[in-house]
Amino acid sequence: MARVMSLKKGAQDLRQARSSTKERLLQVARDLFAQKGFHAASTREITQRANTNVASLYFHWRSKENLYLAVYRRLFQQLTQVRQGMLELLEEGLQAHKSVEAVLSPIADRAFDFFAANPDLARLNLHRMLEGGPLAMKIEQEFENPLYQAAARVYQRLTEEGVIQVSDPEFMPFSLEILLDLYFANPERLERALGLRGAALRTRMRTHFRRTFVRLLAGR
Q1: How far apart, in whole angstroms, are the C-alpha atoms of residue 143 and residue 147?
Q2: CA-to-CA distance for 201 and 204, rounded, in angstroms?
Q3: Sign (positive/negative) of CA torsion 111, 116, 120, 126?
Q4: What is residue 120's three-state secondary structure?
Q5: What does DSSP assign to residue 38?
Q6: Most buried by CB count within 10 Å: which residue of 4, 112, 193, 195?
Q7: pTM
Q8: Cα–Cα distance for residue pair 207/161, rounded to 1 Å
Q9: CATH of the structural domain 65-218, one choice from 1.10.3720.10, 2.60.120.200, 3.40.50.720, 1.10.357.10
Q10: Using CA atoms, how far apart are residues 101 and 21, in angstroms rounded to an integer?
Q11: Chain center to CA of 189
Q12: Beta-carbon contacts of residue 24 (< 8 Å; ≥ 6 apart)
């Protein structure tokens, strides 16, 4: 009986170790892909920083491409959850007959907060747009396009209902993403240009994004 318990514990420890290694590889890969892009981040550097070996990377993820896709998949799963919360805020605001600005401002804040908490997404996006290629297209098709098409449908519906005034609903999600990418891909650029740091810079960025979001959607 003791031997059986020992074997079970050993198997459990092995599963936990493998899970820990897999998660560590994912986190390190996210950091390096954001810093260097897909091509410049080597499997050797990823595994060295994750304190494991290349064989382990291929055991858990099968390929560097799969690891890259996993990084994006997790971020877009989180972004999809945030979008659902934004839709709930939208419906609550509309049902309460709030002003357009009162409805849109907290939604803008949700989008801003997500990118502020995940600045790696902005850096990943800029590297990917510069690198291009089949892998970039796969990410567009699997993750970005469905989310942005859903957002465009919401903008179209609200425009038809007269709540907002968007001349090109399909383009609007990309416009807003580009703005957030530019904020967070290299905030040091804004620090140097504006002479602001930390909370002061973040407050100004948030205010600018909120006002831009409202103006674009309200047609002001």
Answers
A1: 7
A2: 5
A3: positive
A4: helix
A5: T
A6: 112
A7: 0.87
A8: 27
A9: 1.10.357.10
A10: 46
A11: 21
A12: 50, 51, 52
**What fold is seen in the domain 1-62?**
Arc Repressor Mutant, subunit A (1.10.10)
Residues written for the chain: 220
Task: Please report, in tens digits, the pLDDT of each residue of the chain (220 residues total).
Answer: 555 455 444 444 444 445 689 999 999 999 999 999 999 999 999 999 999 999 999 999 999 999 999 999 999 999 999 999 999 999 999 999 889 999 999 999 999 999 999 999 999 999 999 999 999 999 999 999 999 999 999 999 999 999 999 989 999 999 999 999 999 999 999 999 999 888 999 999 999 999 999 999 987 6
Domain spans in the chain, listed from the N-terminal domain onward? 1-62, 65-218
Residue position matching structure tokens 């003791």: 2
Residue 147 burial (CB < 10 Å; 0-12/13-18/19+)?
middle
Between 172-185 and 100-117, two packed helices, what is the crossing angle to 10 degrees?
50
